[in-house]
Amino acid sequence: MLRIRIVENAIAESYGEQEMRCPVHLSIGQEAAEAGACAALERRDYVLSGHRSHGHYLAKGGNLKAMMAEIYGKATGCAGGKGGSMHLVDLEAGFLGAAPIVGSTIPIAAGVAFATQMRNEDRVVMVFLGDGATETGVFYESVNFAALKHLPIVFLVENNFYSVYSPMNVRQKGVNRIVDIARAHGMEAHQADGNDLDIVYQLSRQAVTKARTGGGPSLLEFITYRWREHCGPGYDNDIGYRTEDEFFSWKERDPVVAYEKKLIANGVVGQHEMDLIARDLKQEVDAAIVYAKQSPWPDLNTLPSQVYAS
Ligand SMILES: Cc1ncc(C[n+]2csc(CCOP(=O)(O)OP(=O)(O)O)c2C)c(N)n1
Ligand SMILES: [Mg+2]
Question: pTM for this structure?
Answer without folding.
Answer: 0.98
